[in-house]
């Protein structure tokens, strides 16, 4: 993975936000390699008198202490998924629009660039801000820098509202569905397939389950004013022993994405009710996150950035804040469908629009 | 696999048939290792003036040339599936019956022992007999010694009737079903399972196919007076990419065991008619074998051994003879359900009964 990269001696946060995006994209930060970028961020912000800078591993926190009535956390992760020939970045015209092409441009260094620039420049925001840039978001949840910080410095998470800069095409996405994975297992009795009637076919027993799944109409659940579309899908199926043996076991793995108004237990009950005659084992479950958009500060934010709030479907770190009772939304440049793609690329105007909207709100929000 | 075995300097075919069974079971002949047993058979029969002994690789043919009006092939394979701590053999009482326990006792050295003893002793049978003991039956069909012999010495297969000594519990089993394997493939479109509606779930598309399989009532088809029970079964299923991805492909492998009155093409058409909307690929097909029990010699044999003829379900080498137009049946000691089992074992009385029945027919059959 010896992608050639430009040396970055220092981070110039007075540059325009697109230039900052390119600069930080060209410093590879595949999960685990966030250190050099974290160093540069600490260096670039340490001179700012309005910020208290805290480093915890490769996570950097910078916060104002202006005794505002309300405090907002604004956070973004520094790491990316592995590079695949798409660093250094380059500019391209895509459909007549200036586009920055390369790993991290969408997920989520354009969002981080917006945050870094505003952190540096806004010495007098109308709310106190706790900026957080963290490591290890793109790997197993156990390594997540935000999760680690929450354990060692929980007081840093005290806030009235949180904004994560994950790509949303500069729209506001709130909360997220929960996710549940369940193994549905059928059992039978092996026999030579030449005498199939001696056995009991475990694969055939999947028929009613698949029928129910194929016919299942997922609900749309309104939570705090946002419509969460659920989904119940078979994601894996596996069964059989050999081409001449009646199978004695088959396993169908289901993934239920459930609205954040449901608890995990409720989600499990719903799946059990749908497959009462089957053996089910829950293998993985994560709570969803309520959007919390009934909070006045959240409503003000949505209004200020001029976007319609939408539900977020994938699980993101907003759920951590929701779990703490802090309303949280995603707001960042970039099309989420291009995240992790080899042709990851961001519209430069969208980065600028995000910067402008966030700046406007942070200088006008009334607490 | 260093199973201790008794040395066998020579094969005593004047011993009783149970002793011969034990002697040849205790010479391991996992497919590929038939040579030493083939050597002993050649040695034991070379002295018999009534036999012409031919060796082809590790297949031994011994035939009478008595100018009888009719000729019968009587064949058995020398190899076994791998030994699993069940050689040397031992005698046990099972439900009060003397039982020989160990690898090969059922599949099919008891049958071979009956054949060897009769080949040696019957110098004046009422039909000419071509005895065949062959290698590599328990492995891929390409290696089968009978198939090889048919290619290099087709004239040896000229006969009016054939008996294979595969285990049938001393009953006559005729013909066999054909077998067809088909891959049924569904295709969809990948998507993140958090947005399942963007994708198209290939596993869900298996539902109608599995439903039809589960509801399918296999036919029983009467061929030459025997009832062949068919079977259509899913034997393998595989699909999915990851726990959070809507699967874009799933494959269900079907095995259709079809009556010997159907051709492979007819069997394929039948499966296609059942799954008209699916993508099907035939991966494996073997013709069945008509029992040919309408032949007078076959009827005489069935009557002589005092058994009711039954259909054979698994594919056996009788199909090779059927394909040559030679009526063929299986007749041998041992419960076929114990073939390949780790507790493979044969009832000693059944071996003796088989010897007696075959001897009686071979000395009385009128041609």
Automatic annotation (TrEMBL), chains A, B:
Q: Which InterPro entries match?
A: Bact_exopeptidase_dim_dom, Peptidase_M20, Peptidase_M20_dimer, Peptidase_M20A, Succinyl-DAP_deSuclase_DapE
Its recorded reaction(s) are: N-succinyl-(2S,6S)-2,6-diaminopimelate + H2O = (2S,6S)-2,6-diaminopimelate + succinate
> What does the UniProt keyword field contain?
Amino-acid biosynthesis, Cobalt, Diaminopimelate biosynthesis, Hydrolase, Lysine biosynthesis, Metal-binding, Zinc
Q: Under which main EC class is this enzyme filed?
A: hydrolase
**Known EC number:** 3.5.1.18
**What cofactor does this one take?**
Zn(2+); Co(2+)
A GO molecular-function annotation: succinyl-diaminopimelate desuccinylase activity
Which superkingdom is the protein from? Bacteria
**Oligomeric form and interacting partners:** Homodimer.
**In its UniProt entry, what is this protein called?**
Succinyl-diaminopimelate desuccinylase
- Species of origin reads Agromyces flavus
């Amino acid at each position: 993975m010896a992608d050639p990269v430009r040396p970055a001696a220092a981070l110039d946060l007075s540059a325009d936000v697109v230039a900052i995006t390119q600069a930080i994209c060209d410093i590879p930060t595949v999960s685990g390699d966030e250190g050099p970028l974290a160093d540069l961020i600490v260096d670039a912000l340490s001179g700012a008198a309005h910020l208290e800078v805290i480093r915890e591993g490769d996570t950097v926190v910078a916060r104002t202490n202006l005794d505002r009535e309300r405090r907002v956390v604004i956070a973004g992760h520094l790491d990316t998924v592995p590079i695949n020939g798409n660093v250094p970045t380059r500019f391209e015209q895509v459909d007549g629009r200036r586009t920055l092409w390369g790993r991290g441009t969408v997920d989520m260094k354009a969002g981080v660039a917006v945050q870094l620039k505003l952190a540096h420049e806004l010495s007098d925001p109308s709310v106190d801000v706790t900026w957080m840039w963290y490591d290890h978001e793109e790997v197993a949840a156990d390594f997540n820098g935000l999760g680690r910080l929450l354990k060692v410095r929980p007081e840093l998470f005290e806030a009235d509202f949180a904004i994560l800069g994950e790509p949303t095409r500069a729209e506001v996405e709130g909360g997220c569905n929960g996710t549940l994975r369940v193994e549905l297992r059928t059992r039978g009795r092996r026999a030579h397939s030449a005498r199939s009637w001696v056995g009991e076919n475990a694969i055939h027993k999947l028929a009613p389950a698949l029928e129910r799944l194929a016919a299942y109409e997922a609900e749309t659940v309104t939570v705090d004013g946002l419509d969460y579309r659920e989904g119940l899908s078979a994601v894996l199926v596996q069964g059989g022993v050999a081409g001449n043996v009646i199978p004695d076991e088959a396993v169908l793995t289901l993934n239920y994405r459930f609205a954040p108004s449901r608890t995990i237990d409720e989600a499990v009950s719903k799946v059990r009710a749908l497959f009462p005659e089957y053996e089910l084992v829950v293998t993985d479950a994560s709570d969803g996150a309520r959007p919390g958009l009934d909070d006045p500060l959240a409503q003000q934010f949505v209004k200020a950035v001029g976007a319609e709030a939408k539900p977020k479907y994938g699980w993101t770190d907003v759920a951590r804040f929701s779990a703490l009772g802090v309303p949280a939304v995603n707001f960042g440049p970039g099309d989420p469908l291009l995240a992790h793609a080899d042709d990851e690329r961001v519209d430069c105007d969208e980065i600028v629009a995000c910067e402008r909207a966030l700046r406007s709100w942070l200088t006008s929000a009334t607490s």
